[in-house]
Amino acid sequence: MTVTFTTIGALIGLVTAIALINLKVQPAYSLILGALIGGVIGGGGLDTTIAAMITGCQGMVSAVLRILTSGILAGALIMTGSAEKIADEIVNRLGSKRAFLAIGLAAMIICGVGVFITVTVITVAPIALAIGKKAGFPKEAIVLAIIGGGKAGNIISPNSNTIAVAEAFQVNLTSLMMKNMIPAIVAVLVTALLAALLSKKPGIAITDADLEHGTSHSTTLPSIWAALSGPAVVIFLLAMRPLFQITVDPLIALPIGGVMCTIACGHTRQFLKYAEFGLNKVMGVSILLLGTGAIAGIIKASSLPSDVLGWLQMMNLPTFLLAPVSGILMAAATASTTAGSTVASQTFAGVLTGVGISALSAGAMVHCGAIVIDSLPHGSFFHASCEPVNLTIKQRTKLIGYEAIIGLSATLTAVLLYLSGH
């Protein structure tokens, strides 16, 4: 589609969407209405605006299908107790002396195998809070370890944001996940360091009431081998393309992993129930992506991408910085890793690859940038990460700066890897 809308119109549409989200309007509707207003103000008629919005949504369909099927794996991991078992095993292996690293790794791996970050917090919180209470750590340090680990896992996971970025840049999902493995490891190490520093400050004591917030979905946890079976199958199937040049799409690999997890844990008869549970977990993200596609369609069909590139050149900044900066800004605007990485990649993929940056490196930098300041108060994750750990909005807000440092450590690592040619 040729450029139709003005930069001002696209920005007004984005600001409108943010304002509506802050006013507690349903995010998908906020994004759709923002897109409509931005297109009309940006110089397009209703027909042209709606056509651009539909085109943007059409670009999301394949990602939405893959996300819907990922719910089968997520439902199996949660409902069989596999996610909790994996987290428990990691924490027990590393012990309380390495508590923050153990909690961060547990969250990273749980999120990294395909569990959504909100569910990761719910899964890891009971174990982490119990460790924190026993060791006398303040709650803020424990929560930062969970969230930071979840952010690290989010950039190496076959989840909604990774799928959306892979789709936009037309790169292999497994390759994109592996590309950000080193940034993820750096992020989890920085998480452990910051949590340890935060633990030395006076904070909120963990009480018995906090420990009541976590309840297991399964009365008897599976063995660690059964718990790992589903993720192991998914990783193997997705790795078949780089290893054996045999492509197994995530649309197939993720459900197969869910089936294997259910069978290995001895819950075969509950498979349909678990699949429905997983579908309910991903439904909101799928709907949000369609709303994101609408606003991305307007932004992509506007002069904003070329103007941003021009601004970078006027300031004599390297063009590749557009990748991490766009991820940071769009995720902050939408307060969502998924929405931010989707809008940034849909909008700037063509521009970045057009100036000679490899699609894989550009996608990795955008994705890392999207975890810097994505958990702001106008987004769902900010609030969803309060209740499981019993934090007030004011208390949760104080962690945003620490989270930004964690995200920046991953982003800077991704940029350095690009500059070094890795």
Please give the radius of gyration in angstroms: 21 Å
- How much is the average pLDDT? 85
Envelope shape: globular
Give the amount of beta strand, in percent. Answer: under 5%
The largest sheet is: none
Q: Structural class, from secondary structure content? A: mainly alpha
N-to-C span: 34 Å
Number of strands: 0
Q: What fraction, in percent, of the residue positions are helical?
A: over 70%
Secondary-structure element string: HHHHHHHHHHHHHHHHHHHHHH
* Unreliable spans: 213-217
Number of helices: 22
How does this model look, in words?
This protein is an all-alpha fold and 422 residues long. It has helices at residues 7-22, 27-41, 46-58, 61-79, 82-94, 99-112, 117-135, 139-154, 160-169, 173-179, 181-199, 208-211, 224-244, 250-264, 271-300, 304-314, 322-334, 337-354, 359-369, 380-384, 393-397, 400-419. Helix 5 runs antiparallel to helix 6 (99-112), helix 6 runs antiparallel to helix 7 (117-135) and helix 13 packs antiparallel against helix 14. The two termini are 34 Å apart.
